What we know:
The chain is α/β, with parallel strands linked by helices. The chain is globular. It has helices at 2-10, 18-21, 24-38, 58-64, 77-90, 102-105, 126-134, 151-165, 180-183, 208-211, and strands at residues 46-50, 69-74, 95-99, 115-121, 137-147, 167-174, 188-194. A 7-stranded mixed beta sheet has the order 3-2-1-4-5-7-6, with helices on both faces.
Amino acid sequence: MDLLGQLISESPHNLVSARDRGLLQSIHLPECRAVIELIRTGDGQHWIDLGTGGGLPGLVGAILRPHVGWTLIDARRKKVDAVNEFIDILGLENARAVAGRAEELARDEAYRGLYDGVVSRALARLDIVAELSRGFLRPRGRLEAVKGASVEQERGYFQRCSGRLRMKEVATTDVPVSGAASADRGTVVVSIVASGGPPRGIPRRNGLPQSAPLGGGR
């Protein structure tokens, strides 16, 4: 895990902010480890890390769960290229990074309705993440959304569109990370289950999930 932190912090592509580089080993990597240890995955399953950025938490998942396939998705090609370099250096045969918008990839037959789970950290509001994730999930697939202090308000937005998305929240669980700084973050994982395959027309076309969220409020 130390090597992963070094790769991210020393990358020339500004994968994390200057402040976050100093917090990788003390907060971000331990938090990602705790998230992966918290969510239920099974050998042979395939998961997506949506909005992976510099590879978190997907690369941590690939390290800790070597018998699970991990597809790390981000819209920014430069970041995806860097993450694929990390995958090669770390020798992770169960991971790959893909560049593309979720709205487009989730309508592609190569991705639509094929995944057992999606994990997402610091991507967007919960209802937005749910819409962007829904097209990837097979029946009974799960979204594990890592959220912070605004989770209660975000859950309200999600409830407004859960029926349309055919998704149901099943749990909200505190992320058990040691250390005062991590505890102050109030990190939780919201677990949401998909009922049936992806609904027709979900996700909507590029940009709409963010500009006109199904949960309203914008």
